[in-house]
Amino acid sequence: MVNDHVYITVLHYPAVNKEGRWVCTSFTTLDFHDIARPARTYELAAYYIVQPLEAQQFIIREQLKYWTEGFGSKFNPRRSMAGSMVRIASSLTEVMEEIKREKGKYPKLVGTSAKRYPQTVSYSQMRQIMDKREDIFLILLGTGWGMPKELVESCDYILEPILGAGDYNHLSVRNAAAIIMDRLFSPNRC
Amino acid sequence: MVNDHVYITVLHYPAVNKEGRWVCTSFTTLDFHDIARPARTYELAAYYIVQPLEAQQFIIREQLKYWTEGFGSKFNPRRSMAGSMVRIASSLTEVMEEIKREKGKYPKLVGTSAKRYPQTVSYSQMRQIMDKREDIFLILLGTGWGMPKELVESCDYILEPILGAGDYNHLSVRNAAAIIMDRLFSPNRC
Question: What is the pLDDT of residues B42-79, one digit of tens each?
Fold first, then answer.
């Protein structure tokens, strides 16, 4: 995997809801296809789904089994290859510890936000930093109404907002994942 | 809408299946969110879902109603704005006739394919062509195992393949839609 120093994760917890309260969001079945497949296409190390609820983890595991061992793996082996990228974790801490065991150091956290922070970087800056391969990186994607402010502020880097054509900017987490990986890793993005 | 000379469509028919036969594919509920929302973000004219089956059209309309008139429109008004971009059609011909009635001329067809054709263009070439605003454009997205070869070959332009990091390249139609619109219309893609 060319980009095996980079991991990506979707956080179902912590997330904030419309009122700004901390909540746990639900897994969406297409998160598997629409994030695992670009993660495989752009050759990242792994895609973590952070979901603390056991009942939700059960559903995710069942879906994974279908594509990696069940009928789906025979019907479409390329999906099985994408499925093998997916890991389930109960917390962001667990993800960071697992990456540390695997790579020998904690990953730098790369957040995403619609606002600008002191550690906000452009996509070309982030590409340069990642290309040095001096660190391990974990790209964090929020769900619901986004990640709590405290978590965004504790990131090492924050990617600048993806700009639309005007004021409206309301992409899904799957849209954002695909666009972010394309911008960071595709050889023919421009 | 800045890019109101550009339309996008997902074709559930014609599509080819694994064996290369022409089939009609099913609507996926997240196609609404994951294509309508970037279409609204990048300010395209409209997003057509081409689906000839009446039972499928019924499901799509029910979902649209939820987000544009029902509870969803109050819970999240930004989704209602995206929902208003979506149009349902029974065939590609119907889409082209409707665009002709709206804009006074037929759209140029912009295909997508993993292979190269005489009319294949790079993303920067396509941006230059679209920026002239001399034509109306319709971006075609296939489902299943892609669009029939005959349809791809009859396109005016074909976008070069989105390259991953290696040989594996198996993005979902929603991934492709988001990446294509970002590459063609975002002011900060590079």
Answer: 999 999 999 999 999 999 999 888 888 887 777 777 77
Structure letter (DSSP) for residue A144 = B
B:100-129 residues touching chain A, CB 8 A cutoff: 122-124
Contact yes or no for B51/B59 (Cβ under 8 A): no
Least Cα separation, residue A97 to chain B (angstroms): 27
For B119, the token pair is 């009319």
Sequence letter at residue B69: E
The reply to whether A148 falls in a domain is yes
CB contact under 8 A, B38 and A175: yes
CB of B179 less than 8 A from some CB of A: yes
Number of domains in chain A: 1
Residue B190 lies in a domain: no
Decide if A187 and B163 are in contact by the 8 Å CB cutoff: yes
pTM reported for the whole predicted model: 0.93
CB nearest A190 (choices: B37, B40, B190): B190
Contact B37 A170 (CB under 8 A): yes
Domain for residue B138, yes or no? yes
One-letter amino acid for residue A79 of the chain: R
A90: its two tokens:
């109960």
Residue A64's domain comprises 3-185
- 10 Å CB burial of residue A129 (0-12, 13-18, 19+) is middle
Tell me the ipTM for this assembly: 0.91
Determine whether the interchain pair B163/A186 forms a contact, defined as Cβ–Cβ distance below 8 Å: yes
B-chain CB neighbours of A171 within 8 Å are: 37-38, 41, 178
CA distance B161 to B130: 18
Is A154 a member of any domain?
Answer: yes
For residue B178, which residues of chain A lie inside 8 Å, CB to CB? 171, 174-175, 178-179
Q: What's B128's domain CATH number?
A: 3.40.1280.10
- Tens of pLDDT, residues B166-177: 888 889 899 999
What string of pLDDT tens digits covers the 190 residues of chain A?
899 999 999 999 999 999 999 999 998 887 878 999 999 999 999 999 999 999 999 999 998 888 888 877 777 777 777 888 999 999 999 999 999 999 999 999 999 987 889 999 999 999 999 999 999 999 999 999 999 999 999 999 999 999 888 888 889 899 999 999 999 999 888 7
Tokens (6 digits) for A11: 């956080």
A78 touches chain B (CB under 8 A): yes
